[in-house]
Amino acid sequence: MGERIRVDARRGLLATWALICGTAAALSGQEQAAAGEPVFRSTSADREAVAVTVYNQNFGLVREVRSVDLASGRVVLEFADVPSAIQTETVTVRPLGGAGFGVLEQNYLYDLLSPQKLLEKYVGRTVTIRRIDPETEREEVIPAEVLSVNGGTILRIGDEITFNPPGRISFPEVPPDLIAEPTLRWLLESERARQRIEASYLTQGLDWKADYVMVVDETDARADLNGWVTLTNHSGATFENAALKLVAGDVQRLRGPEVLERAQAGRAIALAAADQVFQEQAFFEYHLYTLGRPTTIRNNEQKQVALLDAAGFSVRKRLLFHGASDYYRGQLGEVISNRKVDVLLEFVNSPSNQLGMPLPAGVVRVYKDDGSGAQQFIGEDRIDHTPRDERVRIRMGDAFDVRGDRRQMDYTIVGTCVSESTWRIELRNHKDAAAEVRVVEPVGGDWEILSSSHDPERVDAHTFRFDVSVPAHGSTTIDTACACAGAERARTHSRPHARRPSVVARSHDPGHTARR
Question: Over the Cα atoms of the chain, what is R_g?
Fold first, then answer.
């Protein structure tokens, strides 16, 4: 009776203080429970449905629907089995099927039960030391007061102060403010006993990535592609039979997000059976991938799910010999000798090429049949998010049998901020078949091609290139003369506003002329 009077007095004092401060007379969940509000607990066993949307930035959105037993009036609901990495500022809860309750207060209980926490809660209180007397071989029960747990347990036993005594420490009870798992606690004003509620929240610790396996044929002209999603859950919770969605894109996030925004989805495009793999659809300025069946996402688990399967699409192998923008702007001599040539595979992500699904960023690993029926690994590269109808380029490595040299044959300063240089590029092919090589020449500033042994193709204001064929066990030489304006300003100490010449690219052959 005396304890009830003390609780009522405490509740009255707290309510009076709330009125004085001009705030709502709502007490914390623990105070309400202590003051007599009925406490109800909901676990994952009450889930009717759960949906998880995972972003490729180590966070996810969880939506749960649970049926819970409550009571009419003011009640406390403990919502258990939530992730330990939950962002509580993003939690929203609402009744389903019309008005059913109002949320007065939310608390997140994360002071989890552990030996250290238990000792901390008992500082200043009495515990029991249980140990075996070595002489009598009987258990001794010794009361002790916990003085401190900083760096070790310090106890008062009788008139002595000791630390880390032998034996085990037992406690009379678990403090009410320690819990076994993270729990949301709501103070509700409930209108009926049975409620269906929906809770949504963001949580850290959910992440996914895409991985691709590509197999090219013996001609390097066709390939098959399999995509896999690798899903990782370190959120601290398990989601049974969840509806899984993935968002691909660079979503901006601020620290301490305050608002959950829902975007409208667009038209869905399925590349396989909807009940087996992912369906893709436009989602705001991102892309959403929805798994056509429920799946269980266990805590501390890595799961792989098929993303796409495409067969027989066209690819192109390209050999690339790339220069640098400063080559034509200074006196360098021989800059590259016996350099290997880059090898790339290219394909267009289009429906006409048996593809067309927007590809999430990930690693593409490429294999090829070695002629004996075994597939061998031939390279890998990382691709960025790739929309439909865009070109995908995968760098495979360096060509073994194709090499190149790049030499500056002549360099002349012909005027203020103007220089001319002549370059020779030699490509050598040691293979049994001819090789097609693309030579890319970046050039900075204003420039003109004075002469060239091969037709140059203008790529943009700063780049020209050659596509040449190198015969089997032979070589091909490209000779190019180029004038650059602005190249020697620092070297010749010319006036900063010296007039630049107009630039016309020309060669000895009128067919080589191109105008800038």
Answer: 36
Res 223 pLDDT > 70: yes
pLDDT, averaged across the chain: 81
The answer to whether 115 and 178 have CB atoms below 8 angstroms apart is no
The enclosing H or E element of 183 equals strand 183-190
Q: What values do phi and psi take at 390, rounded to 5? A: -90, 155
Could you tell me how far CA 52 lies from the centroid of its own chain?
A: 16
**Which pLDDT band, with edges at 50, 70 and 90, does 79 fall under?**
very high
pLDDT at 401: 94
Amino acid 368 reads K
- Which phi and psi (to 5°) does residue 437 adopt? -125, 135
Check whether 446 has a pLDDT greater than 60: yes
| CB of 345 closer than 8 Å to CB of 262 | no
* Distance separating alpha carbons of residues 237 and 82, to the nearest angstrom: 6
H or E segment and range at residue 13: helix 2-20
Ranges assigned E (strand) in 217-361: 222-233, 239-248, 265-270, 278-283, 286-291, 295-297, 301-314, 316-322, 334-348
The SS3 of residue 96 is: coil
Name the amino acid, one letter, at 367.
Y
Residues 6+ apart with CB under 8 A from 188: 70, 74, 75, 76, 77, 101, 102, 103, 104
Question: What counts of helices (H) and strands (E) characterise the chain?
Answer: 4, 34
In the predicted structure, residue 503 carries a pLDDT above the cut 60: no
What letter would DSSP give residue 258?
-
Greater confidence (429 vs 138) lies with 429
Interatomic CA distance for residues 172 and 143, integer angstroms: 11
What was the pLDDT predicted at 98? 75
